[in-house]
Write a structure and sequence with these properties.
- With 190 residues, the protein is α+β, with helices and mostly antiparallel strands.
- It has one domain.
- It is built from five helices and nine strands.
- The termini are far apart.
Length: 190
């Protein structure tokens, strides 16, 4: 039963990745997720060659070193996601009310944004993040996204950072982890 669930999650993730690449095109998917421009100051478009974690991620002193800029996507992530689980509605509200490094404007990421952090070469148990990443307290577990399934009122997509970054549908009645993000425009870099 567990093997079947793992296989289903992994196949679902591969299908979603293929659909995303087909819709967005390979180059644009590398440049970032929804609404992120590769022309942002300090944001590097990889042009097919992935950046090393040291080049890709920048810890932001303007956020008290509590946030990380992803130069591939132009997004700013919490350096330490909340370690406790919450239902989707509570996770969404927590991100909206969050103050990281003295900065507001946080939200739950969409599916494509959260999967952009996944390094599929990392084998379970993960977490499936690029080697040398600067994040703290990331667990090999499921994290919420803001992406709903066809406006299904019962749940949202989530990403499993312990099983190769596969996407899975989670009912809102369940509690899972959350990792808040914000747009990286107008962010001072060191």
């Amino acid at each position: 039963m567990r093997r079947r669930r793992i296989l289903t999650v992994m196949i679902g993730g591969l299908v979603l990745k293929g659909l995303f690449l087909a819709v967005c095109g390979g180059g644009e998917a590398q440049a970032g997720a929804q609404g992120v421009s590769a022309d942002l100051p300090g944001v590097t478009q990889s042009q097919g060659k992935p950046l090393s974690a040291a080049q890709r991620f920048v810890i932001l002193p303007a956020f008290n070193n509590e946030a990380v800029l992803d130069k591939e996507t132009g997004l700013v992530w919490e350096r330490s996601p909340q370690p406790t689980s919450a239902r989707w509605i509570a996770a969404r509200r927590t991100c909206k009310e969050k103050n990281v490094g003295g900065q507001k404007g946080w939200r739950l990421p969409i599916l494509q944004e959260l999967t952009s952090l996944v390094d599929p070469s990392i084998v379970p148990p993960g977490p499936t993040l690029p080697p040398g990443h600067p994040f703290l307290t990331v667990q090999s577990t499921v994290y919420w996204t803001a992406t709903r399934v066809d406006e299904d009122a019962r749940g949202s997509w989530a990403v499993h950072f312990g099983l190769g970054g596969g996407s899975t549908f989670i009912n809102w009645a369940h509690s899972v982890q959350s990792w808040c993000v914000r747009d990286g425009t107008n962010v001072d870099q060191p």
